[in-house]
Design goal:
- The protein has 530 residues and is an all-beta fold.
- The chain has three domains: 156 residues, no CATH class; 239 residues, Methylamine Dehydrogenase, Chain H, CATH 2.130.10; 97 residues, no CATH class.
- 0% of the residues lie in helices and 48% in strands.
- It has no helices and 45 strands.
- The strands form ten sheets. Strands 1, 25, 26, 27, 28 and 29 form a six-stranded mixed β-sheet that branches.
- Strand 5 and strand 6 form a beta hairpin.
- The protein is globular.
């Protein structure tokens, strides 16, 4: 189970290294392109994170072996753990079902694994009340052969790590500090482990033959390797050490993917994730994918535009940085070779110095956008590529980006035109820009956008929604957004959560949180004044 609840990741990925840069030495153009002289990195097997469950509020969503989706989560008031199943054949959700409901127990989170239609889960619970900053001591181990009927076992002491499940789904394991619990066809069983030096990180796997591997960060003198104890039942386990940097770090995640695979690092960022695996249960564990930050060839930048890592579906991992803030350089990671390619300039800001734009996001986007702020006025420049061979620099000025709720599209507002970035269409240029200090734009699919702007006479406070058209912006409707005291001075976007929200700020310490969305086929703008 991840110990890190949020993630700070720059928006998306780049790919091939470019030798012909975009340039800002001349007066800013609408956009500039650059062609790659080096070939794009060869595609390779992605990280096995796709096999992990998807996080949802209070729990997870599992993809079952038949294509159905099963959601398990703790209710908002912590009074129950419930499930709901999406039928892939009919495309409909079934009824909500109780999995855990006990008047004395409060449950706040759920994690789970699935195999062959079966599910192993852990419900993080406490008696009397549940507090996110306190380790739970009344957690439940849950197992189901089909996601419908459940058996439960109380875990003694602090228990909060994700379970492991065997490929046939019949066996499961729940790791804790120096012990673990198993569920097999013979029933539930608790086991003590001589896990000397065990620190924070721990996970466990189990095979069809009930062989358990207990993986943890263990202090050995001044070292902290990943220690693996592998055995069946109460037999003395085989001990193995795997060199993995500081495996005792409380800031790292250690999670199992399946019976023979585990991940170590900061899961939201693939640059910080190593894979520890084995070909079969008879083989030793080893590092089969180093964390790219530790791979050879990386030219790390520690100042100005310090190195950040970007990724998006279908593109390799890219490191981007600039020691002087002017020449922005990129390197592509070769997954097969587990090494970085040569660095090359992908953007030339001329005399202007750039810094990173504010693009921290909890959920990665489906497109590549690298946001910069350049020059004394910190004007926005968005670098993007669709195929890792051609880059475009989009001049967004002082206005924030807009992001669709599903993360598939990004709207980049310029003074005279607006761009929409998508995986299917690349960059689409729309006539009509964004001029008002508090005007904002959001994407409407891969080739459309919606603008919220001021109609005039409101001291810059926006009130009119318009949609992109061949001629520019076509008015949709007037909103009921307030015109607060003072002038509207700027709009900011927060990408951390979804849906993306804007902060619209005035000159008299007044403003509101803004949300633009489509409801029943109509675009609406809602504000919460503060």
């Amino acid at each position: 189970m991840s110990r890190i609840t949020g993630m700070v990741v720059a928006l998306t990925t780049a790919a091939a290294v470019l030798t012909t840069p975009t340039s800002q030495a001349a007066p800013p153009a609408a956009h500039a392109t650059a062609s790659a002289a080096l070939p794009a990195a060869a595609s390779s097997a992605p990280l096995p994170t796709a096999a992990l469950p998807r996080d949802i509020p209070g729990g997870v969503e599992l993809t079952m072996s038949d294509g159905d989706r099963l959601r398990l989560w703790a209710t908002e008031r912590y009074r129950a753990v419930v499930s709901r199943r999406w039928d892939a054949a009919t495309g409909t959700w079934g009824p909500r079902r109780d999995v855990v409901r006990n008047a004395r127990v409060r449950c706040g989170a759920v994690d789970a694994r699935t195999a062959n239609g079966a599910v192993a889960a852990i419900a993080l619970c406490d008696e009397g009340g549940y507090y996110e900053d306190t380790a739970p001591v009344a957690s439940r181990a849950l197992w189901s052969p089909d996601g419908v009927t459940w058996s439960s076992h109380r875990l003694d002491g602090e228990a909060y790590e994700e379970p492991g499940i065997s490929p046939d789904g019949q066996n499961a394991v729940w790791p804790m500090h120096r012990r673990y619990t198993t569920r097999t066809p013979a029933g539930w069983s608790d086991h003590a482990v001589r896990a000397r030096g065990q620190e924070y990180t721990v996970t466990a796997t189990i095979t069809d033959t009930q062989q358990v591997s207990f993986l943890y960060g263990g202090q050995v003198g001044e070292r902290c390797p990943l220690v693996v104890l592998t055995g069946t039942g109460d037999a003395v386990p085989v001990r193995q050490e795997v060199a993995l940097g500081n495996a005792c770090s409380s800031e790292a995640d250690l999670v199992n993917v399946d019976a023979d695979t585990a991940l170590f690092g900061y899961l939201p960022n693939p640059a910080l994730v190593a894979v520890v695996s084995r070909p079969d249960a008879a083989s030793p564990w080893s590092v089969t994918r180093v964390a790219p930050t530790d791979a050879p060839g990386l030219e790390r930048v520690e100042r100005r535009l310090s190195t950040q890592f970007f990724t998006a579906p279908g593109l390799p991992l890219v490191a981007v940085g600039s020691a002087d803030g002017r020449q922005v350089r990129a390197q592509v990671y070769d997954e097969a070779a587990q090494a970085w390619g040569p660095a090359a300039t992908v953007h030339d800001a001329g005399d202007a110095r750039c810094r990173w734009g504010d693009t921290a996001t909890q959920q990665p986007l489906d497109v590549l956008v690298v946001a910069l702020e350049c020059g004394r006025r910190h004007l926005g420049v968005v670098l993007t590529t669709r195929d890792a061979a051609t880059w475009q620099a989009l001049r967004s000025g002082v206005h924030p980006l807009g992001v669709s709720d599903d993360g598939r599209y990004v709207a980049v507002p310029g003074r005279s035109r607006t761009w929409v970035v998508s995986g299917e269409r690349g960059v689409v240029t729309l006539p009509g820009g964004v001029r008002g200090a508090c005007d904002v734009v959001v994407p409407d699919g891969p080739d459309g956008a919606v603008l919220l702007a001021t109609s005039g006479g409101r001291r810059g406070w926006p009130d009119v929604l318009s949609h992109s058209s061949a001629e520019g912006w076509s008015r949709l409707s007037r909103t009921r957004l307030p015109a607060l005291p003072g002038r509207c001075s700027e709009a900011q976007a927060s990408f951390w959560g979804r849906p993306v929200q804007f902060q619209v700020l005035g000159t008299r310490d007044r403003g509101y949180t803004l949300r633009i969305a489509q409801r029943d086929g109509q675009w609406v703008a809602r504000a919460s004044v503060w």
